[in-house]
Automatic annotation (TrEMBL):
Full protein name: 3-hydroxybutyryl-CoA dehydrogenase
Gene Ontology MF: a single term: NAD+ binding
Spans traversing the lipid bilayer: none
Matches recorded under PANTHER family: 3-HYDROXYACYL-COA DEHYDROGENASE FAMILY PROTEIN, 3-HYDROXYBUTYRYL-COA DEHYDROGENASE
Organism of this sequence: Desulfosporosinus orientis (strain ATCC 19365 / DSM 765 / NCIMB 8382 / VKM B-1628 / Singapore I)
Family note: Belongs to the 3-hydroxyacyl-CoA dehydrogenase family.
Length: 295
């Protein structure tokens, strides 16, 4: 599919990141969102990252210009009609994804591969909404996409071998390390990470250690770049809560039950860095401990 066109549905943090790595790999990209300001913000974010890479000598200006030239803004799903692949990267909501893919199924060529970046919703469940389940696949990138090397490829019950092969080739051309997962809730990484993160939350609630010390222990004891609370704030507590809820609904296992304190933070609107407060307080411009969420 070298030189072909890929539409990215959703110009937020994840979608813009996917658009960036796709363009840097030489693909023509149509970056879609429901409004022009949303798409413009996504492209501005890409340009900001690439500018930094050029300033640091990690990228030539000509390469940056070439990548940006491959990204075309879009506010109409009709622009997907001649794309060879569409990658959806919207909010983790089944009904929203279902609606988008039903529209794309009518617009796109029968040969177009439809991929979802869902982090926990079963691929087969979304694929049931379209008439081409053999060409429907999971393509789970990790945040931030330009930095994180992994892409989980998830096949639904009816996903064809050819769709898996083509999708894997595309992801690897984007510079990703790929793994193939069965279609189970949470796939590989989020299933393991959800249970891990819940145990960190339990340690906090039982008073084993403070949030800061749990993060420090994991960073320096297990060599993780971020502690579980820091990472949760970075990704968004709403995302973490939705993933936990989906896993618990799928497995009916207490290991994945959404944490009570996490649920309270979601209800209060403290969703991490993007809202100024999460497990930590960022309102001063620096990360500071919160004492009102610890036991």
């Amino acid at each position: 599919m070298e030189g072909k066109t890929i539409m990215i549905v959703g110009a937020g943090f994840m979608g813009a990141g996917i658009a960036q790595v796709a363009a840097q790999a030489g693909y023509k990209v149509r970056l879609y969102d429901i409004s022009e300001p949303a798409v413009e913000n996504g492209i501005a974010g890409i340009k900001k990252i690439l500018d930094k890479n050029v300033d640091k000598g990690k990228m030539a200006q000509t390469d940056m210009d070439a990548a940006l030239a491959l990204i075309v803004p879009s506010t109409s799903l009709d622009d997907a009609k001649d794309c060879e692949m569409v990658i959806e990267a919207v909010f983790e909501n089944f009904e929203l994804k279902k609606e988008i893919f039903q529209k794309l199924d009518e617009i796109c060529s029968p040969e177009t591969i439809l991929a979802t970046n869902t982090s926990s919703i079963p691929i087969t469940k979304i694929a049931a909404a379209v008439k081409r389940p053999d060409k429907f696949i999971g393509m789970h990138f990790f945040s931030p996409v330009p930095v994180m090397k992994l892409c989980e490829i998830i096949r639904g019950i009816k996903t064809s071998d050819d769709a898996v092969k083509v999708t894997t080739e595309i992801a690897e051309k984007m510079g990703k390390v790929t793994v193939i997962s069965k279609d189970v809730p949470g796939f590989i990484v989020n299933r393991i990470n959800a249970a891990f993160r819940n145990e960190a939350y339990r340690c906090m609630e039982e008073g084993v250690a403070t949030i800061e010390d749990i993060d420090k222990a994991i960073k320096f004891g297990l060599n993780h770049p971020m502690g579980p609370f820091e990472l949760a704030d970075f990704v968004g507590l709403d995302v973490g809560f939705n993933v936990a809820s989906t896993l618990y609904a799928g497995y009916k296992d207490s290991r994945f039950a959404p944490n009570a304190t996490l649920e309270k933070l979601n209800i209060s609107g403290d969703l991490g860095r993007k809202t100024g407060k999460g497990w930590y307080d960022y309102t001063s411009g620096e990360k500071k401990p919160r004492t009102d969420v610890q036991f």
